[in-house]
Structure formats: C-alpha cells, structure tokens
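Most newcomers find our protein records easier to grasp once they have seen one. Sequence and backbone structure share a record, each on its own labelled line. Nothing more is needed to start thinking about how sequence determines fold. As an example, a complete record with its sequence and its structure tokens follows.
=====
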Amino acid sequence: MSSISLPKGYYAVISDYENADRTSFTYKGVTYSVTEGENLFSTLAEAQVAALDAPEQEIEGVIELYNAPVILFSEGKHSIDKFIFDRSLILLGQGADVTPNSKNEAQDVPALDPKRAENESVLLGSFWHGKMTVSSLDVKTVVYNGLTLEGTRFNDVRSEGADIHLEFKNLIYPGYSGHQLFAFGVPKADSILSRSVEFSGIRVSELDDCDFGAPFLGGYADRISFKDVCYADTPKTFGCLTAPAGRSVEYKMEDCCFKNTECYGGLALVNGAGDINVTLKNSSFINVSYADEPGVRAELRENSSLKAGNCLFSDTRENCRCAIEINGDTSKVILENCGISGFAGEIEERIIRTEAPDHIADSEEDYVTENADPHTVLGSGNRDMSALDKMYEGRSVYRGDLHVHTNCGGTSDGTLPMSEWPAQMDALEIDFAAVVDHRQMRGFFLPEWDDLRFLIGTEPGATIENFNASRHGMHGIHYNMLFPHKYGLAMVLANFPEFKFSGDELTGSFKYFKATKERYMELFEYVRSIGGMVVHPHPKQLLVSSDPLDYYIGEHTYLETIYGSVYGHATRKNYQLWQDILALGKRVYASGGSDSHSVAMNTALSSFYTRERAIPAFYERMHAGDFNVGSVGIKMCIDEYPMGSEIEYRDGMRLSVRIEDFFHHEWRENTVYALRVFTDKGIAYCAEFNGKEPQELQLEVQKRDFYRVDVYDITHDCVVAVGNPIWIDDEAGTQFYNHGICCVASATTQTLNQSKNR
C-alpha cells in the first residue's frame, strides 16, 4: 500500500472496479492510499454523493487549487448514464493540463500530442443517455480537464440564477456524435444569470456527426472564450450562441484551427437581438463552410464589434463569397494583419430579404421559365383551373399531427394523459393526431380514445441486420404503422410471431425483433395489404448510413420529411434525404410529425383537404398520398389526377397548383416565401410572394418522372410546406392509385386471440 494518502477534497473513480485494487489509486504517476466508499468509488454518481469538501492542498499533476470537490478519474472507460450535477464539481482525467494538440504551422491541422495518445480517462456515454445535466442553482462551477469524451454531452439548462463559471479544458472528442455536445440555457427576460464559459485545449478531429446536423454548441453565455481549439475534418456544424435583446456577449477566440468543416452558412458566432463583441487572434479558418458560402458570419448590432488580428481566412475551392459576412454594420469589423485567400473579398453585408409581392409573377401571355428545367407557364389568358376547382370543390382544409405519443398506461411513454389531448389540440387548432404509442394496442380500446380525433397506430423499433452502408453500429430504425380499424395491429401481430405478443387488448404488449431488411419489407407489404400505411419516422435522427436506399422501406411508404419543426436541422436533413430517394426513382410519400412525448404541438402539421372533419376522410387522403406536409395548404393536380397519383403521360397535360390556407400560427410577417415546382430534372418554376394571399399557377407538363411542389421560406432559409409528387409513366395503361380504405373481414376478435396465443 502507498504511504501517501489521497488528501481531503479529492475523490477517486476507478474503472474496472470489480477487478481493481481498492486500496490504492494512481493519478498521473503518483499512487495514493484510498478507502473504498470514502474517497474511492466505481462511478461518478457514487463519488458525487460523498464529494462534500473542496481540497485544501495541491497534489502532483494538478496545477490549480480548486474551490470545489475534485473527482479524479483513473485511466480506462467510465460509463456515464444520465448524470445530474447537484453541486459544483471539478472532473480531472489523467490528461489534465496537457493539451491534446501539438504545435505546428497555423494552416495545418495540429497532430495529436503523443502525451495524450495513451492512458486516457474516457467518459463513455451512449446514444440516448450520455447527457450530463446541470439544472440546480446550487452549481456555481463545473470543470472538465484532461478527459476523452465518447458519447457524452453537457447541458446547462438553467435560465436563471447568478454567477456561473464553466471550464472545459484539454478534451478529446473521437469517433462520432449526432447530438449537440454543449448546450447553455438562454436566460429569462428578468434573470440576473451571468454565465462565463472557457474552452481550452479542445480537439475535435474526424468526428462524425451521424448526419444529424446537431452542432457542437449553442445557447447563451455572457463571456465565452476558445483557446487552442482544433476543429477539423468533421461535418459537424460548430454552432453559435444566442444574444437576447438587452444582453451582450463577449466572444474570444485565440490560437485556434478550424479546417475542412461543414458549417452551414459559414462559421457562425452569435445570433440574436443583443450586442456582441468578438475578438479573433492568431487563428486559421480554412474551408469551414459549404462551397460558395462565407467563412465566418456574425450579427453586429449598434454596440457590437468584430476584431480579427493575425488570422487566416482561406477557401481552396475559389469561393464566390466574401470571407466575413455581417448582418449589420460592416464598419464595425476591423482586420489587422489578416491573410485572406480564395474568397471574392474580405467583408460583405448579409442582406436578409423581408419584402415580397402579394402574388407570384404572372402575365396574360405564356412564358418559359429560366430555371434548371425550363417549362411553359400558362398566362392568365390561357389558364384553365377548372379541373383543380372541381377536384377541391366542397373541401375544407384540416390539419393534423401524424406522429404523437400519449400517456395511456401500459408501455406508453408519453407524459400527457390521452384524455387531455383533445382540449390541447383544440387550443392549438389541430384537427386530428396519429397516436403511435409503443409496444401495445391498449390506447385504442380505452374509454378516452377519441374516434373523432385520433388515427390508430403504433411505433415499433427494428434492428435490421443487412443495411448497405450503416455506420458505427447505428443500424436501427423505427417505423410507424397506421391502420383503418382497431384490429389492424392484431392482424399484424397474429401473422408475424416475431413480435411475441402476449396479453389482451388492454394488458398485451409486444417485442421489437431483429431480422433482415427483406423480412421487414414483407411486414410492411402486409400492413399495406390490409389497408394500413407505414411511415419511416425521424430517419436521419436514428439510422446512420451513407446510402439513401438504407432508409427506403418500400414503394408507397412514407418518409418523415418535416420533423419537430420546419426550422430545425432535423427537417433540413430529412427533406434532403427524401429528395435523394426520389432521385433514385423510388416512389415514396412525404410525411411529418412532432413526435411529441409531452404536450400537443402545432409546429409540424400536415394539411388535408376533405369534405368533412372525420378520421376516415383524413385517413383516405393520407393513404392516397393526396395531402401535403407543412403549414401551407397545397392544392395540386395534373388534369384530373391529384397528388400521390401515378399516371400515363400524354401531350397537352397541365399541372395546376394553388397555394392557400396559410396556418396563421406559422405565417411570418416580413418574410419572403417562394413557390417552387420540382421535376426529376430540377426546379421547373420558382417565384416569390409574401404569404398573405392565395397563389395559383399552371404549367404545361412535359415527359418527366414526377412533379411536386414545395413552399420555401427564403428569409429564414427553411422549407415550410412539402407537397407529395404525381408520378408519370411512359408505358401505356394509366396507373392511378386511390388507395382508399381497405376493410378486411378477417379482422375479428378471433384474430386477436390467435395473436395472443403466439
């Protein structure tokens, strides 16, 4: 045993606790004697309970005397599962005070320092549960130093409090993470919260963002600094802070290297209505954005500034934009001894367009568009909208959320009781919702089930064995099954014994099973054969694959393109995925939903035009693909065929479109919207309007694989409505699918009993 006792205020956490010596602990080459349960523990959570004292003396390898309990980690992996900070803590790994970044030329990515290549203390999280959260106002200080972080993320959710100080030093982020790694709560309007954050010696290199689009950081800090940060060769967006009105942010970056990243729109610093003062020193920013986007961007209000000294801004792809883009006064930018290459210039003002005409461009005469796929637009003198008028005659717009979870007992994991959903839906002007609670059918048979408001469904999970290009072992998906009647799920469970259903309607539950994609395709085809529908929800937020076809689960299924909100990264990623799948010739409908597990939400609704407010009517339109996702109503047809149809091409066909019924909760003042028509060859038509009045359009149809329409918010850079395609075949024989409702006579209690016996 060592004769040196671990001093008061230090608490040791050791990996491989079962096989370890529990009388000694080695930190940075020095071995201390310890006492199990007093200052030696198997987990961080156990150590926190005992960590009551701050240290009174320094120990070898720790160059600062901290005023909060210090947790020392051994080398090896330490599992983190939903850790909650309830007091100030200092977390020190074996690499404390040793930067992982070797020094070299500014334009090169620093190599990993050999001193940090071995004997690392690794905090190991998981995809779902690797979050380390601060919510208590008692936590004044948190320090991470000398750790490798895999699958863990930090979330300070506080929006009030006083002085908060956070330090993240000498950290390595290897591998992959789809989640935001650092989130800092935005203060309430009357809060005196003051948060300072320091990042130093950070290494983010070749970190895969799992295609999720979640950034490295976001939220609010009064003062934030970055020193010796290597952020390179990763598609993960760096993210930006928020500066609320009446607040100011001090932002410093020194001796940092940003290279070969995919920061959407450029490396953002701070956005919002508050003031920011940015200082950049001795740092390089090389290929930090997508092609032809600015390198760095910021919003500079009246009392804001941006100063850059001895910095390099470079784009090796010959960027047509300037190196720095400013929303605000560009005279507030000062560059001293900076090198700029590969850009069209140094500084440009970001023009945010807020004014658009009441109507899309129109003329009495026909004209040809100048887009990627030129089409003839029929002028008002030649338009004939009678087919569209007849199709939608007598129909009104209704809106629904196609993906929600309730609390109905059993295996449901929502928090809002099912009985409370209708009142919340009414308050938000939601006409219906698809309830897809997990692992059971219980909800359908409860007294509180509302046949006038709820679509019948469930959301199982799947582990699929043979994807083409899945990464990191993240090869699971979820799938929503929707049914026209309450016994549809019972029929599925009876015919697919892999679910291992047991119990009855109210007590029964089933398992998620592992199988090949071919077996799941058989399942999805069976669901469709009995009149059901299958949706691939939140596709880019679970499965990680480089092949769009891994996300494809069959013809005439649905992909959740708008997820949670039209303004989120998830929607951007999912919408692009849907476009990629369409480009491969697959016929897949767009869907959407909030996936709310708490309160009702109206941020991801779909628009249905039906003659009555009734679940069968909504179900029929969705089944046929004749609806649109998003906050704007889209009416569309080619001759007499609506969205979702598959038809034979003939000369003289016309595409008719009308945009109306903008959901007032989502419409934005001072916003430029664009009506866009797409074919398999690109954009056929694009014109702007302000969203205040209905729009109509008619094009001459050409031989294309499909036509579809969306509405894009140019001001805020997001899609707000997506219409389903009309597909066109060359061969003789019109194929028009109006799937309708399939009533299956065998859906009986006997079928349910067969399911229970398997």
Observations:
- Residues 705 and 728 are 5 Å apart (CA to CA).
- The mean pLDDT is 93.
- DSSP finds eight helices and 56 strands in the chain.
- The first strand starts at residue 10 and ends at 13.
